[in-house]
Amino acid sequence: METTIDVPVQTSGETTTVYASDYLNKLSGEKIERECKRQLDAGCKTLVVNFAETEIVNSIGVSILLGVIDAASDAGAKIVFSDVNSDTTELFEMLGLTNHVTVMS
Amino acid sequence: MSDLQREGILSTVENLVGRTRELDALMQHAKGENSRLGLMLLSAPSAGASELLKEIFDRLFYEQEKTIPFYFALKKSDKTVRQTALRFLQSFLQQIVAFRRRDEKLLNFSGDVYELARIAVPGDGYWIDRLVEIYQNESQTKDERAFVRQALSAPLRAVAADAKIFVMIDDLHEAENLTGETDFLAELQDIFSRSGLIFVFAGRRRFLFDAMRGNHETLRLEPLSFSDSGLLAEVLAKKFSVKINEQTRDLLAAQMQGSPQFIKFMFQAASERRQNLDGFRQVEKIYADELFGGRIGKFYDDALAEIAPNIETQKHITGLLFDSLTIEKEQTPVEAWQNRVGLDEKNFSALINRLNTREIIRLSSNHAEAMEENEILSDYVTARFRLEVIGENRALVVAESLSSYLKRAPKMMARFYRRNSAIGLRELLSVFDHQEIPLALLDYSRFRDEYKGAPNDELLKVLGQDAEKMRLPQIVYAAHTMAFYPPIEQSIEKERSAVAVGFQESKYTDEDETIWIAAEIDSKLEAAKDLTEFWCDRLEVVALMCNFLNYKIWLVAPEGFSPDAIEVLRRRNAFGSSRKQIELLIKALDVEDVLGEKLKPNEYEMVVPMGEDTEMIAAQTIEEIARRHHFAPKAINQIKTALIEACINATEHSLSPDRKIYQKFTVEKDKIVITIANRGLRLSDKKAAEITPDEGRRGWGLKLMKTLMDEVKFEETDDGTRISMTKYLKNS
């Protein structure tokens, strides 16, 4: 696993997994966003954002994730949110994210 | 002036402070949801009953069209029964027409009833014309009683015409001054008790209780609680732009003894003098001014002048009250008062009854005593006695009084703190009703050996399985020990000791009767043998002096009792409990609500700087608090997320000058309340562009807070915003 600017990343073929931190807020969200865009620019076709470590996501974090979803869509890549805990899944549902992305717990 | 002109002791907003329960009860009654048609609103003097009824009138007037509210208050200026009945009829017509025409300006209509009748809605024309006829014929009706009955029956005519009327008759105690051949109250009671109308009779509690009988609902309006008094002080401080702090707020709440009127007087006076109430010195200065020539002084001057117009009689009363407060300290036979006042039987009887209904004295079993617990009255009596009876120099009296009030203030607060920390033995004993409880809750020896140190969560459960049980007596009367044996006051504060009279098996025989004498004693460690012996002796003296035969002593010490002390308790056949056992007993009896005032909610406060993810520090803190209070993990996460959103909201939108977020977490029995406050821009200070979310992807904070919490309230403060969010334990 490589780490770029505090964000752990794992690549396997055309699939890249980006690991979110324990608290997804403006600062950590922007780091994720930048890394995701970097991976998409590099030709990644399946982007996985892994939330295994994430306990709390705030509303700014959610708005940044929406930007990541848009970027993936523009790049023609598939995006998956994986290892999302039940509370965060509920939050994503509440704010309509699950309409745009596959969420796996 | 109309009865409905809002010039009462409280303005509309303040009326609701601490009175939600009473307002709800009155609204419920107005809607006909009570089993009985009549309700007696028994009010302590200056507790704000009139304002409550006016609030009900307003709500019914503005918020619905089905029930017509009618409010009538007797006045001091009402001299005769006939004149009062006429005013009743006139007010009724005025209010009916105003309601039907949905025009509140008509409530202050100064024209005569003929003009009113002309503008009445056509559907009411017939019965309104009949009422106008009664009004018109008043001067020709020789039979006073017939006229009074016709006038007071006016609402019945409306009902006969299918109108739904809710009648509120206030200040009924003023009826005692009415002259005439007809008994106003008797007629009122006779007409309304058989009318099928929903009504409220309101007035001073001691007067109404004696004067009005019947099968009515009863609603008692007591002085405000300490916390509601504090809340009212905060509301008034804002209204009158008078600065207070937490210390002076509490002092005002304690010193004004729950009187909304006196609390308001203090703020009015401070505002007029352009002074703040942010120090004990300032509070006592305003208090002294109020007592020696302000509204509080005038309140009691007027009361005494009304009770006894003759100035010499007033002096005698002042002297008697002063003696009762300072020298006699106990009840004095009424005859002794009559001898001092020097009035004939009839006039004296009227005077002493008025003193009683005004709650200046307490009258019982032909004995009278000043209301010693009313310290404002005591201060007034002392000041007036020194100035008018002894004739002391005014400057000297004012200076000495102010000095004594200042010296008293910290003592008053200390007394309040001690009282507040007391368990409430009297209240606890009152709920004993043959419940079966583990013996270990009253037997410290057993508790210490078998349960002390066990985890809190498990204690009640384990205790419930304890085979050794005892049956509590059924208590029929409980009072502070001081009420039975006043000298005990020298050894213990009033609230820390109680006597309860009850029956072990409800056979109601002499053998079955049992008296519990309980005291809460101080000891940092387990109470020692000597201390326990001392208290057993003291309480046995109470039993001896009161002639209690079958009694039980119960001592409560914070940390329980030493082995030697336990032996003393055993020898005396007494119970001994620690504070922990009492907490468990309250839970076991499920009476936390009864003792609610004693069980204060847990409050936590913190201030965090804005930015740098500090909201996570707050979130971790609330997580720990919620976990301690058994909130489910899912609810904890929701609370944390809502809190984070509130913090983000404060940080992003406020342009806060101090960059701080003020947080308070209050945990009560069934809920957690989070209050987040910040200084800076308020929502109403912002331009529309500043509020609009960008691209629909922001501005979700509020939605999240509202979805994740059970209640969310936004409030604009003078210099910022406050968000209160509540999560209920039952929903988690």
Give the SSE map.
The complex is a heterodimer of chains A (105) and B (732).
Chain A: E1 2-4, E2 7-12, E3 15-19, E4 23-24, H1 26-41, E5 46-50, E6 56-57, H2 59-74, E7 78-82, H3 86-94, E8 102-103
Parallel strand pairs in A: 3-5, 4-6, 5-7, 7-8
Antiparallel strand pairs in A: 1-2, 2-3
Helix pairs in contact in A: 1-2
Chain B: H1 12-15, H2 20-30, E1 38-43, H3 49-63, E2 67-73, H4 81-100, H5 113-119, H6 125-136, H7 144-152, H8 154-160, E3 164-170, H9 184-193, E4 198-204, H10 205-211, E5 217-221, H11 226-239, H12 246-255, H13 260-272, H14 280-291, H15 295-307, H16 311-328, E6 332-333, H17 334-341, H18 345-357, E7 361-364, E8 367-370, H19 375-390, H20 394-421, H21 425-430, E9 436-438, H22 444-450, H23 456-464, E10 469-471, E11 474-480, H24 481-484, E12 497-503, E13 513-520, H25 529-545, E14 551-557, H26 563-571, E15 575-578, H27 579-589, E16 602-609, H28 615-628, H29 633-653, E17 660-667, E18 671-679, H30 688-691, H31 701-708, E19 711-717, E20 720-728
Please characterize this protein's 3D structure.
The complex is a heterodimer of chains A (105) and B (732). Chain A is of the alpha/beta class and 105 residues long. Helices cover 39% and strands 29% of the residues of chain A. Chain A is built from three helices and eight strands; from the N terminus they run ββββαββαβαβ. In chain A, helix 1 runs parallel beside helix 2 (59-74). The longest helix of chain A is centred in the N-terminal third of the chain and has 16 residues, at 26-41. The mean pLDDT of chain A is 90. The radius of gyration of chain B is 30 Å and the shape is globular. In chain B, helix 26 links the parallel strand 14 and strand 15 (575-578). Chain B is α/β, with parallel strands linked by helices and 732 residues long. At the A-B interface, strand 6, helix 2 and helix 3 of A face helix 28, helix 29 and helix 31 of B.
